[in-house]
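#onboarding

Welcome to the new folks! Below is a worked example of what a typical request in this channel looks like: someone posts a single protein sequence, and someone else replies with the predicted structure as tokens. Don't worry about understanding the tokens yet, we'll cover that in week two.

Example request:
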Amino acid sequence: MQVENQILEGLSTGVITLDAQFRVRYLNSAAQALLEVSRTRSEGAPIEQILLRSDPLIEVLSEARHSGSPCTRRALQLILDSGQEITLDVSASPGLEGAGPAMVVEIQPVDRLLKISRDEGMISAHEATRTVIRGLAHEIKNPLGGVRGAAQLLARELKDEGLQEYTGIIIEEADRLRDLVDRMLGPKTHLELAPVNVHEVTEHVRSLILAEAGEELQIRRDYDPSLPDLNGDRAQLIQATLNIVRNAWQATQGQANSSITLRTRAQRQFTIGHKRHRLVCRMDVEDNGPGISQALQSTIFVPMITGRAEGTGLGLSISQAIVNRHQGMLDFTSEPGKTVFSMYLPMEVTNA
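Example response:
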């Protein structure tokens, strides 16, 4: 049985075995990730106790037991213990009489392939955008250096201080435009990889934001203390997280009971781009602001795109660049009253 379990642990499909009373006997890693439950907590518990809404699943199990043959349902909607709704394809197969589990259940999120495809498209689009920006930066900075140099030479020849003021403006604006282009390109330093505790990153960012916001903002913490260290650049991860949390704070400014939740979880058998990782750290930044408008959602990570008049539109673009350099992914969901940015960072195989 141990060899069989090892095989099941390597599957991306969730597998659950139940006894005759529909009590959980075993969940593989993929099932634990999908249902957001641990094997220790769920083993021996009735299946309905690990879900807030389990009636559709119980119907499938009952039908399979009554008919004595496998039963499959597409797009079954369940509600996890956390309150999140998920849509699954479920296949229930009765076990052999008197041997093994009474029921074997396979679960697969129907949007898994769509999400993987969307994530791949997002990563490809980001790389294309970075390529365009690098080319544009080259075309801008070359003539910009000539303009700045000419203004400096002209300033030396001018005796009138009033005219020198104009050359000073030219130099300052040229420097500002150069800095803007550099910021659009994102961090230029190489990653200094070392073991990083993700909670040191979130706590550092939390202290910085609270120092700015004061008592008007409440930042809640919902951490998984069992998360191992990941291999990353601490300074750049702080910058990426700070940009996201600051955006969340700015989105909630001016409303009563502004709050942000910092959440960490482990994701098993998670696919980023073309690669499936055995263990991924998921860091959520959730705010109770008005949400991101539908018009902005498709371009939210594009540089210079912002929903605020005073914003630069570079924070999320830089965060995405940093996360991508860590072979990770930055995603979000948004609706009025709840916006969640999720940072997925692969962990070392040895930690899995």
